[in-house]
Amino acid sequence: MASVSIPKPAAVDIPAPAHVDVRAAVEGLVREHEGWLRSVILGVLGRGDPVDDVMQKVWAQVLQRYDSLQDAGRVKPWLYSIARHAALDFAIARRRRSTRTAGESALVGLADPGRDAEPDATVAGREAHELILREIGGLPAIYREPFVLRHLENWSYAQIGEVLGLPLDTVETRLVRARRLLREALSGKV
Q1: At what angle do helices 75-97 and 157-164 cross, to 10 degrees?
Q2: What region does 165 belong to: left with phi over 0, alpha with psi -120 to 50, or beta?
Q3: pTM of this prediction?
Q4: Structural domain span for residue 27
Q5: How many CB atoms are located within 10 Å of the residue 21 CB?
Q6: Is 124 helix (H, G, I), strand (E, B) or coil?
Q7: Which of 87, 74, 88 is nearest to 38 (CA)?
Q8: Inside any domain, residue 150
Q9: Angle at the Cα of 160 (from 159 to 163), degrees rounded to 5?
Q10: Cβ(57)–Cβ(17) under 8 Å?
Q11: Do 26 and 43 touch, CB atoms closer than 8 A?
Q12: pLDDT tens, position by position, for the chain (190 residues)?
């Protein structure tokens, strides 16, 4: 009986650790996945100022655990799990150290709404922008995470479902609820 070789998915080629420069492989993962992982962390934390610190921890863990990644087709869920747990660990540690609320800081990576605008429009735009960011940060995490991935990262429902481990119906339900909560929170304010 002839053996059949099943090729790895073409999305990301993850060579076996014994045959690869792990640092170079992780650098490739950083280049390809850092943007959406930042959004995952943002979705968990609800605020942007600690994202860089958590990202450092994520990439350190990826470097340490690289040999545990065995299926190239599962790289996104693997990275998602590491990023989400690092963000949760950070949030728990932050709660122990501080009494600051989650909505005090603006989210990282969003465009400045006031750039090249009239001064009055700039102030109004920034105030509205900050209000929206605070309200997004105030959403419960189960709604905030898919909302950030969908509306800040432009992920499909299928992509969100894959990394969150949710069926498409659940992703859709959580997004509908997140939008409704955000609309209610912003009603009369914007």
Answers
A1: 70
A2: left
A3: 0.56
A4: 17-186
A5: 10
A6: helix
A7: 87
A8: yes
A9: 85
A10: no
A11: no
A12: 444 443 443 444 544 445 568 888 888 888 899 999 998 888 888 877 889 999 999 999 998 888 888 787 888 889 998 998 898 888 877 776 654 333 344 344 444 444 555 666 677 777 887 888 888 888 898 998 899 888 878 889 998 898 888 999 999 999 999 999 999 998 887 6
Exposure b/e, 90-106, CB count within 10 A at least 16 = b: bbeeeeeeeeeebbebb
pLDDT of residue 159: 87
Residue 26 within any structural domain of the chain: yes
Residue 58 lies in a domain: yes
Question: How far is residue 73 from each of residues 11, 33, 163, 167, measured CA to CA in Å?
Answer: 7, 14, 12, 18
Retrieve residue 49's tokens.
């100022």
In a domain? residue 43: yes
Q: How far is CA 162 from CA 34, 80, 125, 168, in A?
A: 17, 10, 35, 9
The rounded distance, in Å, linking the Cα atoms of 143 and 127 is: 23
What does R_g of the chain's alpha carbons equal in angstroms? 19
Q: 3-class DSSP state for residue 164?
A: helix
Greatest alpha-carbon pair distance for the chain in Å reads 76
Q: Look at the chain and report how many structural domains it folds into.
A: 1
> How far is Cα 178 from Cα 148, in angstroms, rounded to an integer?
10
